[in-house]
């Protein structure tokens, strides 16, 4: 079997039979995507590398459970997201929740002025990406997780709530705050540049 | 706008409202300038995120990254490997050998008891002491008591005499 020319399905089948080289090819193809998802949630390079590595090991162990109902890359993405959410939960136990409580109970987001212009209009894609990346980094892990799952994974409110472990109302509130904060941060970055 | 209305605008954008609610909310955003402005802002942000989702290149070479994964997989492999089905040899080892050993042990016990000297005639109790004269030439007499676990051997002078009258125990087992 020529691994580099085989499609993902064929590689998955071969990997299930114990073909480690086939699995290596899958890792090679999707490692950047899995890492990027981890990085978008965790915002820490080394932790993102470690978590994506852990996700690949789990992927190998659970290959028998992959029934092909989604793309292999999507299935792997869900594994890394779950690991990242567990990581964030562990971190949350060690830090104060005061900022989060202030944001959600104090209702800052309800009074943010509306941004009237498209904050990314006229920007080069690379610059826009840089601004978005920086803005994502300024959100709390909880707000960022909800935003990433909803916007990049196309998950509905209910699915996000189940993944994050909170109510649908909290998801709506966090998503709203995250979007409004992003709009304000992007508008501010655009003005500065 | 109150918080509930703001979240309704967002839910409209995300397609999370029922058909009737969506129609009503859309109609309201068309009449209310603040609601319309909020909807436009949320749309812009969503569009910006969709156009430039998070990207990142793994800051490690393919070989190095894979070597760590492979190492971990191999380390965990014995624990996650499926348990092989029993082979005939394994069944023999597991069941037949202990059964054979048990059988031999039982046979040994039976042979031991069958091989014991018969009790002296007239003694009803099999465990009662037995007195034998086994070495007539040496004039030796053995006294064996299974209950007490005692064996006494008398050697008497060849010249005669009744050993019972003047017994000299020479060995005790």
Helix count of chain B equals 5
Report the total helices of chain A.
9
Order of helices and strands of chain B: HHHHHEEEE
Describe the global form of chain A: globular
Count of β-strands of chain A: 0
Structural class of chain B: alpha+beta
The rough form of chain B would be described as rod-shaped
The level of helicity of chain A is over 70%
- What is the SS-derived class of chain A? mainly alpha
Describe what is shown at a glance.
The complex is a heterodimer of chains A (193) and B (173). Chain A contains nine helices and no strands.
Characterization of the model:
The complex is a heterodimer of chains A (193) and B (173). In chain A, 70% of the residues lie in helices and 0% in strands. With 193 residues, chain A is mainly α. Chain A starts with 7 loop residues before the first helix and ends with a helix. Chain A has nine helices and no strands. In chain A, α2 (20-42) crosses α4 and α7 crosses α8. Chain B is α+β, with helices and mostly antiparallel strands. Helices cover 53% and strands 13% of the residues of chain B. Chain B is built from five helices and four strands, in the order αααααββββ. In chain B, a hairpin with a 4-residue loop joins β2 and β3. In chain B, α1 packs across α3 and α2 (19-31) crosses α3 (33-51). Chain B is rod-shaped. Mean pLDDT of chain B is 76; it is low at 81-85 and 159-168.
Element layout with pairings:
The complex is a heterodimer of chains A (193) and B (173).
Chain A: H1 8-16, H2 20-42, H3 45-61, H4 72-92, H5 98-106, H6 125-137, H7 141-151, H8 157-164, H9 168-192
Helix pairs in contact in A: 1-2, 2-3, 2-4, 2-7, 3-4, 6-9, 7-8, 7-9, 8-9
Chain B: H1 3-14, H2 19-31, H3 33-51, H4 62-80, H5 88-115, E1 130-135, E2 140-145, E3 150-155, E4 169-172
Antiparallel strand pairs in B: 1-2, 2-3, 3-4
